[in-house]
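Q: Structure tokens for this one, please.
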Amino acid sequence: MTNILFSSAGRRVQLLRSFRRALSQRQEEGKILAADMEPTAPALYEADKAFIVPPVVSSEYVTRLLDICRSELVRVVVPLIDPELPILAEHTAEFARIGTTVLVSSADSVRVADDKLATAAFFEACGVAYAKTCCASEAEAAIATGRIEFPLVVKPRRGSAGKGVRYCRTEHELRFCLDGWTDDEVVVQEYLEGCEVTIDVFGDGTGRVIAAIPRKRIKVRGGEVERGVTIDDAQFRESVVAISSLFKPYGPINVQCFVTDRGPVFTEINPRFGGGYPLADAAGAQFPEMVLDLVSGRAIEPRLGSYERGLVMMRFDDAFYARETDLIVSSQAPRSSRCHP
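A: Here is the predicted structure, written as tokens:
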């Protein structure tokens, strides 16, 4: 029985459906479970069974997930938002003791991805082109010595979905954007022009790349890709191999870059399923099938280059409808109570 729990499931309905497909195609018995702090999180209503959990920052969060895993015989936990990754990466041994695998890279790798300054240093160590980055206190000297040049962006040192990013064209604007912020809170980074590309990567934890599917962002809404297209991987493959060899992804990560006049320039690593992964899945990525193999100890053959190029994704809003009395409080709302469009 391969029961799969998606933590912080939110709006990731398509991802849950892709895992349901994988179970069906592999003829494996298993349930799709989902957990979230919000009773109106749409993915809860796609799951076979759903749970309300404390906020990720709560001291009870891990305890609650462990309780669910014990009672539901969960085989694998799939974390879906950045704030829970460092927490779950530190507690993988506790889950392993009850027979549950957490689909997350090592704690050291997650810490690198969580810190944009550390990520820039990591890319440098990998030998790949990366966005020039410095901490706030070093910005003036970096500009004076030509290490970075305007225009610049000020970003939260830790954060995602493009929140809190500010554009600066002059020293006056930069000083204004940095006023009151510390080195631990923000970084200063060169502004990159070019098409933005996200590469969905799957690894087995050893540094070996199993698959890598690049997709160009056409339109983004709220920090998440709304429209995109898969593109050829030739210009990214060498860099992805170098990044993966040091990062050693366990399961899915997505690597972000801009394709500029000097080639791909890398900016971020997100060690989880990206919000735009459904495009890679539709193009033949088969990451859910790989997850089933990975946690079962089955050999996974590399599939580099095995996906459809030129596949366009055009996402749109859909909805579940439920009566207030049927909203999930602590366990599954009966499937028959759901009101569909």
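A few notes: The chain has a mean pLDDT of 93. The first helix runs from residue 13 to 25.
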